[in-house]
Amino acid sequence: MVRVKSRYLLCEINVSDRRDLLKLDDRAVAGSVKAAVARTHGDYGAALCSIRFCVKYLNAHTGIVFLRFHKGFYKLLWSALPFITSIECRGQIIPCFLNCLHVGGTIRTCQKFLIRYNTRQLHQMLPKYKNKVEEKRKIQEAILSCSLTGGGNKALEDELESEEEDDE
Amino acid sequence: MSVFMDLNVLFSADRSRLQSLVETAAHLGFSTVAINYVFEPTTKKKQEVPSPVPISELIGHLPVVQGRSRPIKVLNRLTVVMSEASHFRPNATEYRAFDLLAIQPTTEKLFHTTCMLCDVDIICISVTEKLPFFFKRAPINGAIDRGVVFEVSYASALRDSTMRRYTIANAVCLMESCKGKNVIVSSAAEKALELRGPYDIINLYPPADDKCLIGPSHSEGTWKSTLCIRLHETWCVVFLTSLSEGRCLVCQMLTLKKPCLPPAEPFYCMQKPGRLLVALCTPGSVSRTPFRTASVKLLLPNDPNQPDGD
C-alpha cells in the first residue's frame, strides 16, 4: 500500500519586537519560504517547493509555525530556511529568523512535542512572576491542564497569549 | 547528550545588543557563547590589544539555556587577523586574559606557520573573500594532530549572496582537504537576528558540501540498495566532541582505509542491531576480490531535533 508521506517542520519565528509577530499571516510566511528556497537552490528548489508545500498552522502569538514538505526532499528545503532574514507582510518588512524545533511525520507528533515545549516555556516563565500571585496561579493552572485534547491546548494558548502581553 | 556552543559572537560596545544576543543564544539552546574581540594590527601604528570587559559588567543576569537547568556560560575570545608574522606574539601577557585564542591568517605562509607552530585554539577561515591560497594536506594534518580547529562562520552568508558563494566555496575547499575533521561552525553574529539554531546549522552545510552527505533517507530505517557511502569523519558542530545525535546518521567506516574511488555501489546491506554489514564491489577487480565487506557501526540519532532535557 503506497501511502503519501510528508514531513512536518515545527519552526519558531524569532523577532526582536514581539508586537511584530501579530502582523504575520500564513501566506506571508509561505511566500518568504519560497523566495528563500528560490534564492538558495535556484529553479530546482523553487520547483520542489511547489510540490506539497504549505503552511499548516501559524500561531501569531507565540510565533510557532508548522511547515509541510515532501518527505523525499525536505532536507534540501530545510537547508534554505536559515537564509530567511525577514518576512514581508502587507507592505511591512519584519526582520526575523526561523528556528526549527522538531521534525515529525505527522501533525499529531508535532503537536505532542509542541505541548511539551510550551509547558517547558511556561515553567521557565514562572520565576519571573514571583511577585504577582494571580499570574502565577494562572500559569500553574495552565500547566496542569495541558493535554492533547482540543480543550487543553486552547487553554494553553490563551495563557501564553496573556503572558506575552504582560511580558512586553 | 549534545552540547552546542557558539564560539563567535562579535563584541559590540552596545550593552543591550550583547544582552539580547546572549539571551537569544540561550533560547536557541546554546550552552556556551564566546564573545569575540577582533584585533587587526597594522604595521603603521602600534595598537593596543583590547582587554576583555568582565562578563559581570557586560551582561547582568545570565539567562538559563533552553532545555537545561544551568545558565549559559560566556567566555572571552580574541581573534588576531594576521597579515604578517610579527603580528602575533606567542606569549604576550595580554593574551592571558582571554579564554580562547584565534588567528585568521591571510597568506599561505602564515597559514602554514599557524597550523604547525602557533599556540592557538582556533584558526579562522575567512569567508568574506575568495581564498587567495589553497589548502594543503600537510599543514592541515599537522594542525589536526595538535588539536587545533578550523572555523567557518555563517553570518556574512546571511547578509549578501556574494558572501554566501564565498562562504560555501571556502567551506567546500576546507572540507576536501581536512575531510571534515576538527571543524567548527559558528556565527559571527552582530545582532540577535543573525543567530541560527544548532539543528538548522547542521542541516545547512551538508547539501552545500557534497563530502558531508551521509546517505539517503535512513531515518525511515530501510536502506535502499543503491546507497553511496562517502568516506568522511564526523562533522562537528560541537566543539571538540563528536556529534552522534542530531538529524544526521553518522557512519564510520572502520576498515576501509583505501577508498575505492569513485565509491563503489554497495549492493548488499544487512542490518544487525547497531551494526550494518555492507558489501562493496570494487570496480576493476572482479577476478581477485569482488567483495570487500566493511562493518559499519551505526550511531543512530534520537528522535529528531529534540533538545535534551536535563
Automatic annotation (TrEMBL), chain A:
<dbReference type="GO" id="GO:0001682">
    <property type="term" value="P:tRNA 5'-leader removal"/>
</dbReference>
<comment type="similarity">
    <text>Belongs to the eukaryotic/archaeal RNase P protein component 2 family.</text>
</comment>
<dbReference type="InterPro" id="IPR002759">
    <property type="entry name" value="Pop5/Rpp14/Rnp2-like"/>
</dbReference>
<dbReference type="GO" id="GO:0030677">
    <property type="term" value="C:ribonuclease P complex"/>
</dbReference>
<dbReference type="GO" id="GO:0006364">
    <property type="term" value="P:rRNA processing"/>
</dbReference>
<dbReference type="InterPro" id="IPR016819">
    <property type="entry name" value="RNase_P/MRP_POP5"/>
</dbReference>
<dbReference type="Pfam" id="PF01900">
    <property type="entry name" value="RNase_P_Rpp14"/>
</dbReference>
<comment type="function">
    <text>Component of ribonuclease P, a protein complex that generates mature tRNA molecules by cleaving their 5'-ends.</text>
</comment>
<feature type="compositionally biased region" description="Acidic residues">
    <location>
        <begin position="158"/>
        <end position="168"/>
    </location>
</feature>
<feature type="region of interest" description="Disordered">
    <location>
        <begin position="149"/>
        <end position="168"/>
    </location>
</feature>
<keyword id="KW-0698">rRNA processing</keyword>
<protein>
    <recommendedName>
        <fullName>Ribonuclease P/MRP protein subunit POP5</fullName>
    </recommendedName>
</protein>
<dbReference type="GO" id="GO:0033204">
    <property type="term" value="F:ribonuclease P RNA binding"/>
</dbReference>
<keyword id="KW-0819">tRNA processing</keyword>
<dbReference type="InterPro" id="IPR038085">
    <property type="entry name" value="Rnp2-like_sf"/>
</dbReference>
<dbReference type="GO" id="GO:0005730">
    <property type="term" value="C:nucleolus"/>
</dbReference>
<keyword id="KW-0539">Nucleus</keyword>
